[in-house]
Automatic annotation (TrEMBL):
CDD domains reported in the protein's UniProt record: crotonase-like
Region (Disordered): 1-32
Biased composition (Polar residues): 16-26
UniProt protein name: Enoyl-CoA hydratase
NCBIfam families listed in its UniProt record: PRK08788.1
InterPro entries assigned to the protein according to its UniProt record, in alphabetical order: ClpP/crotonase-like_dom_sf (IPR029045), Enoyl-CoA_hydra/iso (IPR001753)
């Protein structure tokens, strides 16, 4: 057991699933706040009995935090806030689950194509605006005051910003084959959208810096042993693991939700702190050398090859 607790696409009534192992029973109808929401790269569903808002990234291109996906994530946060104002209590979410529809990939992290373009063009302000969007999305998950438990469902690799995003949820449930890494050191950069802030609060500065500077890949079990991942599920059973977690902890829901709120109040970073770190990240990124940008391009090419190979399989 870990040291922590035992965790935009068009709204659909019956979602189209890219991986049949991820299916769960869709509700016959969605709460008004969800039914009237429209996203192009996020898929929504609702489990009425447990009052779970399910959301899955469904990117049209690279499974990374592109400006389009970031805008929709901020819109998703607004949708959750609206849902919690539903006049009928039974239609207000108690749990918010965030995952990915891309097989074996949670999220590759930052938009490397955008990074390279902004750096080569000397567009410091454009890169800063993108980075601020990233930390706004991370901070929205850490926001105090929402009476809901957030769960990251990681059914594939969470790299860079994908790892940072998962860390911003109350609970992390990961399938056994999922991998986690902060690869930015490969191209002479550091993960600037929350990794240091979140890892030092959950571990300590020494271990956080080791993870960042090594670029090491960690398994779900590795992070469970560190206390970062709450539940390790067998491959293909992530959704069921979420449902089991909710069933097992439902009796103490209010206490757990309150404890997560206390954790955010005591240890949660202010948006200004995240932005200050991001400013350092932008300054560092703008000083990258041509050889660093070539390494970034090699990583982009590797990501594209993986997607092509998966599509052909």
């Amino acid at each position: 057991m870990s040291a922590r607790s035992e965790a935009y696409g068009v709204s659909h009534l019956t979602p189209v699933l890219t991986n049949p192992q991820r299916q769960h029973s869709p509700s016959p109808e969605l709460p008004i706040s969800m039914a009237t929401s429209h996203f192009d790269e996020i898929e929504l569903d609702w489990s009425p009995r447990e009052r779970i808002i399910w959301s899955f990234m469904k990117p049209r291109a690279t499974p990374a935090f592109t400006p389009t996906l970031l805008r929709e994530l901020i819109g998703l946060r607004r949708m959750v806030e609206e849902n919690l104002q539903e006049p009928v209590e039974a239609e207000r979410g108690r749990y918010f689950v965030f995952g990915s529809r891309v097989p074996r990939i949670f999220n590759f992290g930052g938009d490397l194509r955008l990074f390279s373009e902004k750096i080569r063009n000397g567009d410091r302000e454009g890169l800063r605006q993108y980075a601020y969007q990233c930390v706004e999305a991370v901070h929205s998950n850490l926001g105090e005051g929402l009476p809901i438990v957030s769960i990251a469902l990681v059914q594939g690799d969470a790299l860079g910003g994908g790892f940072e995003a998962a860390l911003s949820f109350d609970v992390i449930i990961a399938e056994r084959s999922a991998k986690f890494a902060l690869p930015e050191i490969l191209f002479n950069l550091f993960p600037g959208m929350g990794a240091y802030t979140l890892l030092t609060r959950r571990l300590d500065a020494m271990r956080a810096e080791k993870m960042i500077l090594s670029g090491q890949t960690y398994s779900a079990q590795d992070l469970h042993d560190m206390g970062l991942v709450d539940v390790v599920a067998e491959d293909g059973e992530g959704v069921q693991a979420v449902e089991r977690y909710i069933a097992a902890t439902s009796r103490t829901y209010e206490a757990r939700r309150a404890l997560f709120a206390v954790r955010k109040r005591v240890a949660g970073p202010a948006l200004r702190e995240l932005q200050d770190v991001t400013d350092i990240w932008v300054d560092t990124a703008m000083r990258l050398r041509e050889e660093d940008l070539r390494r970034m391009a090699h990583l982009m090419a590797a990501q594209k090859r993986r997607l092509r190979n998966q599509a052909a399989a």
